[in-house]
Amino acid sequence: MLTENTSNNTKTVTNGIFSPGSDNLPAAPDRPKAANQHLRRNPPIAGEAEAIAKAQAGDAPSFEMLYSLHKRRVYSLCLRMLGNVAEAEDLTQEAFLQLYRKIGTFRGDSAFSTWLHRLAVNVVLMHLRKKGLPQVSLEETLEPSQEDGPRKDIGARDLMLSGSIDRVTLERAVEDLPPGYRLVFVLHDVEGYEHNEIADMLECSIGNSKSQLHKARMKLRDLLRSGQRKEVTQK
Amino acid sequence: MTAETRIAKPVQTCEEFQAQLPEMFESGEEFHGLDHLQTCENCAALVRDLEYIAQQAKLLLPLRDPSPVVWENIQHKIAGNNGK
Question: Is ipTM > 0.85 here?
């Protein structure tokens, strides 16, 4: 039985409600952003380096160990980007098959998890392009339709979100984002990629990536506030 | 600063402020002291909410494991055609 990776589970959730600032890795004001992101995206994993070396030499149990260590994060990445369980499982499978074929080319220039997750992102984007989804093919069509978009917030003062979102609610709201918004939001805010990396991956401009991210957050705010209003009405 | 120049200073509307928000957020520069945020409760609440959403997104955990079928399929494909 292989050891399950628990090194990713370093984030603090109290009774399902996020406590601002409770995360012990990212967003610490006294730590540079790049260092935060490196730690968040690439937590050190005991035994990984040895498993990589053995898997590169064709050792099957070591490849299984790498699968066990990384399956949850790769699957979560696929699921959040796609919003579909069956597709996410198919592409997790494809990502690890590509890993099997390409692991010999990993030279350790970056953390293995960074390399693998980039491989998985590319698998998902390739799949979306094959499906012909416009939001990842052309910059101008990265824009979701107007009715999906967020509205300007002029004079709509009522509920405040701070301190009130639980993880499940946020996950559901992310699922409800239009695909173009969801891609950029997941890559930037959840996975921690920088705009220049996202622009490279999605073949769009950095400005477009920034704009899409802002619209995604605005749309999420709309979704979360409308959920809160429904709760208030039902009470 | 004279009274005339104070009067002549353009007042930023909510629309103008919100149009600049994407760049302000991503620039990493401090913008909470801007005049508009000090005087507009609505835009201040918007900024707080957007920062809160970004903060909470960073705390999202990996969701769950894929079903065991995924690994079975991977093993099958690797065994069948050496992963190709």
Answer: no
